[in-house]
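Lab channel / #folding
Pinned by the channel admin:
"Please post every new chain as: sequence first, then the structure tokens as a reply. Keep commentary short and put observations after the output so the thread stays searchable."

First post following the new format, from NK:
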Amino acid sequence: MNKPKATFKIRPAQFADQKTILSLLFDFKLPIDGLEKTQLWVLYSSKGRIVGVTGLEMYGKQGLLRSVAVIKNMHNQGFGTTLTSFVIEEAKKGGVTDLFLLTTTAPEFFKKIGFKEENREKIVGGIKDSVEFKSACPKTAVLMRLSLA
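Reply from TO:
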């Protein structure tokens, strides 16, 4: 897997990033409902350009990975993996033991990182109360889980 160059860093999203973040999410048809409950981070270059976004929602010991998106001309350079790995570490720091995500387009990408498909009907806990789980993602979205325990 490619690793991004050291000139790229991850930082918490700021209000000024909102337009770029929404544009990225719209480009990839990712849901924006419930984002106000999501801690967001952006990956940016040394020139201050945002090249990716990711987010995490926490529900007790369960976490929800949201909105991993990288601008199209920066794909296949390791940025998505870097963002996902960052959220995994943040989730661990927050005491999350099971990290979930819903995807309609990238199950193979997340399988490479270690996520496994799960049956939506068998999930219990706070994650089921998330906007993404209840309504923002279609019922056809693949539910995936990564055990952090």
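NK: The helical segments are 18-27, 79-93, 107-113, 131-136.
TO: also worth noting, The first helix runs from residue 18 to 27.
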